[in-house]
């Protein structure tokens, strides 16, 4: 790691860790959604909405700290990009839950549980990785695994689309379900964006 003669603002590390922990909360709510009935899904959506608001607050706190700090632990644009990408993950997860409730989806297609399992694993890895930003150590395995998970998510997404277009569902149901699985795929992409940003930061700091 590059040697520095100037002090660094360290509160960013705690805020990134808190943001990632909140994403784990969101991924657990997604898992709960799979086995919930209509009333349970509405309650989960409320809790997810609260988690998304908490994520927004965490992101705004990072931006405020960024604007008020003279010295930052790494490049300002990378701090902004990392905070924004973490926020995107929560936004996509909240949107997926909200769509399930708004569209009154009775049964999600087989394969959505695999999408959500991938997101849950990526959330755990991301939360585990954030504290390592302090030292920039033990991060390589993280971004390699998240990129592998994103590739897995792509394959699951393609299989889900094939299922939706096999003639089993009517046109309106296809539109509803496709939007949900597309948003879950965007969440997987957002996890990869976080991992790629962490890799960029680590390379710059090496």
From TrEMBL:
InterPro entries assigned: PhoU-like_sf (IPR038078), Put_Phosphate_transp_reg (IPR018445), UPF0111_domain (IPR052912)
Matches recorded under Gene3D superfamilies: Phosphate transport system protein phou homolog 2, domain 2
A Pfam family assignment: PhoU_div
Signal peptide (UniProt feature, chain positions): none
Coiled-coil residue windows: none
PANTHER family with a match to the protein in the record: UPF0111 PROTEIN YKAA (PTHR37298:SF1)
Family, per entry: Belongs to the UPF0111 family.
Protein name per UniProt: Phosphate transport regulator
Organism this protein belongs to: Streptomyces inusitatus
């Amino acid at each position: 790691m590059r040697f520095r003669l100037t002090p660094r603002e360290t509160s960013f590390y705690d805020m990134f860790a808190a943001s990632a922990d909140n994403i784990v909360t969101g991924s657990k709510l997604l898992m709960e959604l799979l086995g919930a009935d209509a009333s349970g899904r509405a309650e989960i959506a409320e809790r997810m909405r609260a988690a998304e608001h908490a994520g927004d607050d965490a992101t705004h706190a990072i931006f405020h700290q960024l604007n008020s700090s003279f010295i930052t632990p790494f490049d300002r644009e990378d701090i902004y990009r990392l905070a924004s990408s973490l926020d995107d993950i929560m936004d996509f997860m909240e949107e997926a839950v909200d769509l399930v409730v708004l569209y009154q989806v009775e049964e999600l297609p087989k394969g959505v549980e695999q999408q959500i399992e991938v997101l849950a694993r990526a959330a755990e890895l991301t939360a585990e990785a954030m504290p390592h930003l302090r030292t920039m150590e033990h991060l390589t395995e993280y971004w390699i695994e998240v990129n592998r998970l994103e590739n897995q998510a792509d394959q699951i997404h393609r299989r889900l689309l094939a299922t939706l277009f096999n003639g089993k569902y009517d046109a309106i149901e296809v539109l509803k379900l496709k939007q949900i699985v597309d948003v879950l795929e965007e969440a997987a992409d957002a996890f990869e964006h976080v991992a790629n940003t962490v890799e960029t930061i680590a390379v710059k700091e090496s």
